Amino acid sequence: MNRFFPLNSLDEDSTVPKYRQIIDSILQDVETGVLQQGQRIPSINEMSMEYMLARDTVEKAYKELRSRGIIKSVRGKGYYVCSTQTDTSLKILMIFNKISAYKKSVYNGFKQAMGPEVTIDLRIHHHNADLLHSFIEGNLGNYGYFVVMPFFYDDMPKALEILRKIPPHQLLLLDKDIEGLKPGYASVFQDFASDLYDALASGQDLLSRYRKLVMVFPENIPYPPELVEGFQDFCRDKGFDHEVITEFEEGMPLAKGEVYCVIEESDLANVIIQSRTQHLELGRDVGIIAFNDTPLKKILVNGITVISTDHERMGKIAAELILDKSQHKIQNPYTLIRRHSL
């Protein structure tokens, strides 16, 4: 193996962790010119075998160096020095549309994958383009990346104008992709209409036991309208009687043989309470499909069937794109998780 830098100086007796010694050694070689931009360094396996280090130790060191923008991985080729600016640490501004249990899973997955040396600031825009403007204006030189959930139902033209100010290589869209931006940005997204269609189709064997599907799609709470499109397309194509309502109010009667697809937890609670009031058995007399899995839904009434993406995975993929300086667009689809309520 070619030796790109001397690691024989690793001190077995030092209180400094070995992964930190690797980082410091690489940074020193970059600073002194031993390692040049574009130069290949040993792979994780090469490093661990050559110096008899645990693979996890080397991986931890490389992960931090990637997060700081010093090295990058090239699929099928290995690791390369991509920057000689060793005095800068990566700062990321994440801008979510709201806070919820599943958004928290996205954040936790992202933070864990980025590593402890990265500074991550979180802001909430509440679907308001003016708030987005206040977060981005004046901060363009303060962050290496902007990770944005672009849910702006009334202010999308204004939001696009603001997002275009971010250099594309510093922008990552999360949870949704949009048209109208300059090429060169990255995204981890859901295609809500087609993803919902496919998720429902994967459970058609269960749905066929019911005579009607009812979607409860809130009128005054912002959710992707493409969900209604995907629901209606599936029902029409598969021959299901169906209906879209805006709320399942407390005390509203349930009809035997119907499946209720609910987004808001208040509607979910009302359906469950009403099923008990009418002595209807979930999964037999009526069905429930909820959106966005949470720990509570796993145990509620012996398990609520959900249509959900893997939110933690979404966050981790976004982190990997940043660490690899990639501008790829990756779909993170819905899946139907079968439980007792259907």
Automatic annotation (TrEMBL):
Keyword terms: DNA-binding, Transcription, Transcription regulation
CDD domains: WHTH_GntR
DNA-binding keyword on record: yes
Molecular functions per Gene Ontology: DNA binding; DNA-binding transcription factor activity
Domain of life: Bacteria
Gene3D superfamilies: 3.40.50.2300, Winged helix-like DNA-binding domain superfamily/Winged helix DNA-binding domain (1.10.10.10)
Classification via Pfam families: GntR (PF00392), Peripla_BP_3 (PF13377)
Start and end residues of each HTH gntR-type domain: 16-84
Keyword Transcription: yes
Classification via InterPro entries: LacI/GalR-like_sensor (IPR046335), Peripla_BP_I (IPR028082), Tscrpt_reg_HTH_GntR (IPR000524), WH-like_DNA-bd_sf (IPR036388), WH_DNA-bd_sf (IPR036390)
PANTHER family assigned to the protein according to its UniProt record, in alphabetical order: GNTR-FAMILY TRANSCRIPTIONAL REGULATOR, HTH-TYPE TRANSCRIPTIONAL REPRESSOR YTRA
Name listed for the protein in its UniProt record: Substrate-binding protein-like domain-containing protein
